[in-house]
Records
---
Amino acid sequence: MKQIVYKSSARKALRRIPKNTAKLILGKIEQYAEDPASLANNVKKLQGREGIRLRVGDWRVIMHDGIVLEVIKIGSRGDVYND
């Protein structure tokens, strides 16, 4: 299993969204860290910038996948891609 590091913006987003949704998102991130192939249908490489995105329902998780899985941003489908 890869080590997971959350940026402050991702932690802040998790605190703002409903607890049941946050638990679901955290579970999917941990599942991806253990076995990336298990979520292959919900993970895509980002276009125009580095990183990948994980789809969890209407929520998106922007991550960098290397030796350490770095969670950059968590947000709703329309807002997460805006910088």
Note: Residues 47 and 56 are 19 Å apart (CA to CA).
---
Amino acid sequence: MSRYLVVMPDDSSQPILEAINNASKSLRIKMFAFSDPHLLDAVIAAHRREVKVRIMLNPARRSGEAENEASHKMLTGAGVEVLDSNPAFDLTHEKSMVVDE
């Protein structure tokens, strides 16, 4: 098992894209704001190659401004399982990804 920390913006999104593209079994992603088109396309491509993809998104900022509506719609439209974070918390500002368990 390998683990590594991606520090943005220094590391760029390349290590994240590589991890998504190399997933063979599963992807579990939690994101505060998920809007990068390259990452969204990679997640959908993983789903299409039968990787089990589950995503948890923070639905809105504390101000109530919807943050992930377009991404949520795009992902669910492609058949990806997307859940909103727990409404008991007004904000879930987590960013994590588990690849292949």
Note: The CA atoms of residues 33 and 68 lie 6 Å apart.
---
Amino acid sequence: MGLGGISIWQLLIILVIVLLLFGTKRLKSLGSDLGNAVKGFRSAMSEADKEDQEPKRLEETSAQRTGASVEVDGAAAGKEKDKV
């Protein structure tokens, strides 16, 4: 039993018929075109993920910067209270 009730022999017969109809050169170019399309899709998806993560990184770094400045200001205010 193969895929969905199709045996391996039936799949081989289908493969031979496809090879006879289209030829090896056409199938090779079809395969390379399909591979390039998948590669382009993956790179587009990874670029989209990077773009989605970029605003989060900017928010985190700005939050860290404002948090650090508040701590410095708070420490300076504490010293001034001690002096008074």
Note: Residues 68-72 have pLDDT under 50 and may be disordered.
---
Amino acid sequence: MVVVVVHMSMATLTLQTMTKIGRNAACPCGSGKKYKKCCLDTGLSEDGMAGDEHGSAGERMTLVLKTERGTILREIPAAMPLRLITTQGKAAEDATHSAAALWGLPDFVFRPELMALGSGVRELGDGLIILSGLGLVLQVKSREEPGADAERERRWLLKQGRRALRQARGTIRSLDSAPRTLTNMRDRSAEITGEGRDWLSVVILDHASPPHGVSMPASELADAVLLTRRDWEFLFDQLKSTHAVAAYLKRVGGESVELGTEPVRYHQLAALDAQGGPRGLDPAIKELGAAEHWEPMLPLDPVGSIDEPAHSFFRSVLEDIASIELQTTTEEVRLRALAELDRLPTEHRAHVGNYLREAFNLVSRPGWDEAMFRLKRILGGLGTTQLLFGAGAHFPDDKFGEVFSSWTELRHHEFIARLGDRGDQAISVGVLLTPRDDKRVWDTTMTAIFGPIKITAERLAILKDAWGDEKSAMLEVLGSGEPSRLK
């Protein structure tokens, strides 16, 4: 195990790996207590510190975070054990996919596919993560039977890292050349287009005990990032959102840090984000009198550690959307809609989870038999996406889908008008919960509209009469600070 002391107020990444700490020595967390009376009692082992040339990435790490809130201990578990059903390399790929599917959404994780070449076939990466405008090409290299020679292990890691980067960039060129039909971890196929997508090469080096000091020059990491498998799992466990992890990796892509220190870099950036603030609202949106909510892009606490029920409720809604039997739309549209929902900042996922749960309980109350809606929409402060959430009950002829879609249609039309020149980029994704009488408790309806739509003057008048003007709609606006980077 490795103990790392991180001074969060500093703008540079600081890595202090503690070697052996005696039971009567001062605790590294800065409490002033003896180690045996402080952090040792929380599970740190006095003889488990790294004291040789091999180090951190395959082991458990403890971060001692010096923050304005005081000293925080953060445990970073070792990577999950591999299931050696076939080869170790294949097991490491499977573990990489499983982590992204478990803490993110399996819909965004696509298995590697074989591509025909003139001389044979080639695999398209070791997996892909595809979001609306961003794609990650994964390359996984696993070290079998590492030796005790630290310099030899360094050479292996750098050689395999460079090889993986070449392979990932070749995959990106292939994906840019023509659309491919790929299969995700829900065993659903979708056509993936590379053109116009923002790509990032992600190399994951799986090593039981990598030596310290392994890093690749930033000049070799353009649009790429190197991680250990433990650090890949840390990011997904910390953020529990595929979009949040992908956005973080895109943010740090091209920057060189020591392999195995991603949790340190993450917490440094989280501390910088916490010092930021909102960038302001689009004036056209501000006219509506919307309340602005700001939160740091990177949370210091693991997502779900504070309001787990609300986060779980929101995740269950996403799972419902992923399981809807499609009738009038395509898998590509579902993936775009899920990607927009997954972009919700972490604290607001809990906020929406609580809102949906409370709204659903309200419309489901016993003894009430009139049609009822509780609706809210959320806008990204300077973005072109709006998300619409609600619960409803007691619709005539059970036409709740049509009724909810008409509200989404009206708000999308109004949103386009407010965006002006950016109206052709407008996206509206709506989610509605309606009660059921069986064990499933509720049904989930999803509607999505991308870009311009045509509404006749007659229909627009009917919709406005039914739903009221734009200012009467319940509205919230999300602000996000400009992402900070380590200097």
Note: The first strand starts at residue 2 and ends at 7.
